[in-house]
Amino acid sequence: MSVMILKCSRLRSVFRLRTLHHHLMSSQAGSDVLFERVGSASVITLNRPKALNALNLSMIRHIYPQLKNWEKDPETDLVVIKGAGEKAFCAGGDIRAVTEAGRSGDSLAQDFFREEYILNNTIGTYQKPYVALIDGITMGGGVGLSVHGCFRVATEKTLFAMPETAIGLFPDVGGGYFLPRLQGKLGLFLALTGFRLKGRDVQRAGVATHFVESQKLAALEKDLVNLKSPTLDAVGSMLDTYQKQSSLDRDKPFSLTQHLDAINRRTTGHVFRLFEASSMEGILENLRQDGSTFAQKQAETLSKMSPTSLKITFRQLQTGAALSLQEVLVMEYRLSQSCMKGNDFYEGVRAVLVDRDQSPRWQPSSLEGVTEQFLEGCFAPLGEHDLRL
User: Fold this and answer.
1) pLDDT tens digits for 7-19?
2) pLDDT value at position 265?
3) 3-state class of 157 per DSSP?
4) Is 141 assigned a catalytic role?
5) How does residue 291 score in pLDDT terms, banded at 50, 70 and 90?
6) 140 counts as catalytic
7) Is 355 known to be catalytic?
8) Which one, 51, 208, 217, 278, has least CB within 10 Å?
9) What is the per-residue pLDDT for 271?
């Protein structure tokens, strides 16, 4: 009898522990990311406004299975994703946690990138309309949650950038796929310099599909979730309508208009492209020879970036231009693990995010020090550790 009581007591303890664990996981999901069903639409809200909705592994692990379930669910016809608060859609991944994991040898350094890229691929291959309302800061991981979906709606508050070369990383989350597919060499320019696009410029560059004034987003979301038949055409048509009703900055030219010829080509007796060269060194040489204020400014910007990151990024986009999204993500996982083993990622995070002295000590400190042999190793297959999609 006492044995039975002891067993029952143990079972109750185990049950309580499991219940508590489930409650903690649910609470974490509830605090970091929210899921809501409205009619035939499902809405994801990134809910870390104090952290600018930065993406962590817990959020990834809740969003991914939910998207897979909704994709199979006959009652879900549309997915909308947005960020909580006034400042950001998603300012990036939880870089500090990844840095700490990499230093300590924790598996998070592998798990975060692997599972984030699997989520990026899920969005890129999603079988139902997926609308990202990128109102506010949208960088890094936030780009991965939006840019591969069918529709990306920017507002006047949108701030887009891929600033990874400044922290010893590279523009991942499929950057090697979408960036080289922007007009001319614009994607390479954005990838190498971390240049920030704002408001309508995000759409004009091709990163967003639509521009809608921020004050109209609530009405837009309401109309989207109330669509009786939210097909791709119906969703696109509604977004087109809201865009036509948004006149803010409509007549303002693209901020890079006067520089696009410089980025893509410049005529001095013969035609050549400032950002088209067979090497990273070639781009810097083009910029130095050009002599314009714009070229000098870009050369100065690039001189502050990790030389390793610049060379990795140059080859990443050069290679990614001919690959599928899935192939790019496999490549980028290899690159992420190479960065985890190196110096510059940790040094960049220290200089930019931790100590904030903005004085990273890159190793090597010059482009010439980043050898072809080293680069080959960065892009080399990982065998059984490769990303599987």
Assistant:
1) 344 434 433 333 3
2) 56
3) coil
4) yes
5) confident
6) no
7) no
8) 278
9) 27
Indicate which residue of 94, 164, 221, 347 is catalytic: 164
**Distance between CA atoms of 366 and 368, rounded to whole angstroms?**
5
- Beta strands (DSSP E) in the chain are 33-38, 41-46, 78-83, 88-90, 130-134, 137-139, 151-154, 159-161, 197-198, 210-211, 266-267, 271-272
pLDDT score of 30: 54
Of the candidates 93, 142, 168, 175, the residue annotated as catalytic is 93
Report CA-CA distances (Å) from 90 to 5, 53, 56, 137, 363.
51, 5, 11, 6, 30
Asked about 73 being catalytic, the answer comes back as no
Q: Is the pLDDT of residue 20 over 90?
A: no
Comparing CA positions, the residue from 359, 380, 337, 329 lying closest to residue 98 is 337
Catalytic residue among 32, 172, 290, 332: 172
Would you call 58 exposed, middle or buried from its count of C-beta atoms within 10 A (0-12, 13-18, 19+)?
middle
The alpha-helical segments, DSSP class H, found in 37-196 are: 57-72, 95-104, 108-124, 141-144, 175-178, 186-193
Residues with Cβ within 8 Å of residue 378, at least 6 apart in sequence: 312, 334, 335, 338
**pLDDT tens for each residue of 77-91:** 999 999 999 999 999
Return the higher-pLDDT residue of 176 and 262: 176
Assign 268 to helix, strand or coil. Answer: coil
The Cα 229–Cα 77 span in angstroms is 8
Q: Which of 102, 124, 141, 194 is catalytic?
A: 141
The pTM score is: 0.90
Extract the tokens encoding 255. Answer: 């901020």
Phi, psi at 260, each rounded to 5°: -60, -40
Q: What share of the chain is helix, strand, coil (3-state, %, to 5)?
A: 55, 10, 30
**268: pLDDT confidence band, cut at 50, 70 and 90?**
very low
Per-residue pLDDT tens digits for 161-173:
999 999 999 999 9
Q: Look up tokens 């109309």; give the residue.
A: 223
- Closest listed residue to residue 182, CA positions, set 253, 263, 120: 263
Among the listed residues 291, 268, 264, 267, the one whose alpha carbon sits nearest the alpha carbon of residue 277: 264
- Mean pLDDT computed over 244-248: 95
User: Which amino acid, one-letter code, is at 45?
Assistant: T
Distance between CA 375 and CA 378 in Å, rounded? 5
Cβ neighbours of residue 43 closer than 8 Å, sequence gap 6 or more: 35, 36, 37, 79, 80, 81, 82, 221, 225
